[in-house]
Specification:
With 156 residues, this protein is an alpha/beta fold. The protein has helices spanning 17-28, 40-49, 66-74, 96-103, 115-128, 148-155, and strands at 9-13, 33-37, 54-58, 84-88, 107-110.
Length: 156
């Protein structure tokens, strides 16, 4: 008997409670299971329990910074291969490309970024690795387009 595919689980490590909720809500709208923690030590403990399909970690979190967390998990046997995104507000202070290579990151996202951008990045990565993603229950937002004549009526 063939087992049903399980919904992929995303772990989000973010100390800002509002941003953590926004990310969790947005990623869960893709039909993914989301778990959140507010510090690096809790994140590492959860990763070591297993069954995490994707990791999102902030660069600066209490009790074990994102870089130290990544260093720790990459030095272990599984879960060392969990795909990860590092989020940071230190855009000019870090070498994103060097971090991508050193920790085999999917990406480094500089704050502020769109939570939808993160969600779409996670979905694409999981799909490329053969993970079954539930049907995407959201509609992609497309900004309205305005003709020049429409704008002219506002100013003319």
């Amino acid at each position: 008997m063939k087992s049903l595919p399980t919904t992929p689980t995303v772990l989000i490590i973010e100390d800002d409670p509002v941003f953590r909720r926004v990310l969790s809500f947005t990623v869960s709208k893709a039909g993914l299971r989301v778990e959140t923690v507010a510090d690096g030590e809790s994140g590492l403990a959860r990763l070591l329990e297993g069954n995490i399909d994707f990791l999102v970690t902030d660069y600066q979190v209490p009790r074990l910074e994102g870089i130290e967390l990544l260093r720790a998990i990459r030095s272990l046997a599984p879960p060392n291969d969990v795909p990860a995104v590092l989020c940071t507000a230190k855009g000019f202070e870090i070498d994103s490309e060097q971090l991508r290579k050193e920790f085999d990151l999917v990406d480094v996202l500089h704050k502020p970024f769109s939570p939808r951008q993160l969600r779409d990045l996670i979905v694409r990565n999981l799909q490329s690795r053969g993970k079954s993603i539930p049907a995407f229950p959201h509609q992609v937002y497309s900004p309205p387009s305005f003709a020049a004549s429409t704008l002219g009526s506002f100013y003319g």
